[in-house]
Amino acid sequence: MDRLRRDAPMGESPRITHLSWGRMEVEGLEPGKDFTLYPGGGRPWDWSEHGTRHQPGIQPDDVQELLDHGCTVVVLSRGMELRLHTMPETLKLLEETGVDVHVEETTAAAELYNRLADTERVGGLFHSTC
Hints:
With 130 residues, the chain is α/β, with parallel strands linked by helices. Helices cover 22% and strands 26% of the residues. It is built from 3 helices and 7 strands. It has helices at residues 60-68, 88-96, 106-116, and strands at 16-20, 23-26, 34-38, 41-44, 73-77, 100-104, 122-127. α1 runs parallel beside α2.
């Protein structure tokens, strides 16, 4: 199966169907631990791509893919124990591009993302452990 969803029209964000410590299930994707999700698809979120760590946290390069997929709302998770931070530069980039951003604990982030997916071009970064 390729990394993009095949079961939904382009522009519809895939729903998170299961979340537990270290495991997420997303419509149309293989189960995994961390995900980048956006209208029309998603993929595993590989922190090593941009050198992301819990601190300083989510980097501008991490959210650029969400912007490139036309997200107008972004949900960033903090992890189950709130250990994942977000760099101020990341929030500034989202603000400058006019994107609404929500930063939440992962369970709350997933619930919010799924609600927003009904009506918005939502994307998100989800970390399912600490």
